[in-house]
Amino acid sequence: MAQERKGRGRGFASMDPEKQREIASKGGRAAHQLGTAHEWTSDEAREAGRKGGAASRQRLPEE
């Protein structure tokens, strides 16, 4: 199934989604090895979920 691409077709966003995941996972693994990755506590994750839910409810519906 062909994907429809907009723009110039350059950069990370224009890559195949599988290739994007591969590159992003390398960055995540590197951050954990260096000790610079953020580890979410359950309280932090819960609060982030509340903020995201509140933000999505405030958006105006598109017509």
Q: Could you characterize the architecture of this molecule?
A:
The protein has helices at residues 17-34, 42-58. The chain is mostly helical and 63 residues long. The mean pLDDT is 80.
Please outline what is shown here.
This protein is mostly helical and 63 residues long.
Order of helices and strands: HH
As residue ranges, the low-confidence spans are: none
Termini separation comes to 29 Å
Strand proportion, as a percent range, falls in under 5%
Rounded to the nearest angstrom, the radius of gyration is 17 Å
The amount of helix comes to 55-70%
The secondary-structure class comes to: mainly alpha
Question: What is the overall silhouette?
Answer: flat
Biggest beta sheet summary: none
> What is the typical, i.e. mean, pLDDT?
80
Tally of contiguous helical segments: 2
- Based on DSSP secondary structure assignment, what is the total number of beta strands? 0
Oligomer: single chain
Label this structure with key terms.
single chain, 63 residues, mainly alpha, 2 helices, 56% helix, flat
Question: Topology of this protein?
Answer:
Elements: H1 17-34, H2 42-58
